[in-house]
Amino acid sequence: MDLILIGFMGSGKTTISRRLGQRLGLPVTDLDQVIVTTAEQSIATIFAEQGEAGFRRLETQALAQQISQPGILATGGGVPTQAQNRSLLHRQPAPVVLLEIAPETAYERVKADEQRPLAKQLDLAKLAALKVARQANYQRCADLIVDANQSPDLIVDEILTKYQLG
Ligand code: S3P
């Protein structure tokens, strides 16, 4: 990959990856989409039929498969929680950018989303607690942390300026 985005659910990874891809003329890969296409099942169905552990196995397989491809990769919010995924991220050369979002904003964005089975079960307090529990792993994986509580244009500019891209 040329650049990898990580961050909590609702931090804007998909949106920002598309904009980066447009600006840089690079292909964009969404890891959740790869999982859905490979499994021929929705994320919600995978969670319902195989549980979170089954989903995590598919996610690690998809990450291992995609990580050496060119382009921008938007990961799922749980990727940095798995040791195997962290080691895949560490072993590859592309910058890993953490989009840092306020839990309130993340909650507003994901609460009604049927395709985010984890978020669906959580109220704001529980979602915020999940983010806190994950934070050390997010930071451990990140080469750059960007405030994602700003407009997509500013976020993209910050990333491009930092890596002198575009
Ligand atoms: C998850 C985040 C989702 C998706 C799955 C699990 C998580 O991706 O991979 O529902 O554990 O945070 P987004 O970050 O794109 O919502």
UniProtKB/TrEMBL annotation:
Family per similarity comment: Belongs to the shikimate kinase family.
Membrane-spanning parts: none
Protein name as it appears in the record: Shikimate kinase
Residues that, per the record, bind substrate: 32, 56, 77, 134
Binding site for Mg(2+): 14
Pathway: Metabolic intermediate biosynthesis; chorismate biosynthesis; chorismate from D-erythrose 4-phosphate and phosphoenolpyruvate: step 5/7
Cofactor, free-text remark: Binds 1 Mg(2+) ion per subunit.
EC id: 2.7.1.71
PANTHER family listed in its UniProt record: SHIKIMATE KINASE, SHIKIMATE KINASE 1, CHLOROPLASTIC
Keywords: Amino-acid biosynthesis, Aromatic amino acid biosynthesis, ATP-binding, Cytoplasm, Kinase, Magnesium, Metal-binding, Nucleotide-binding, Transferase
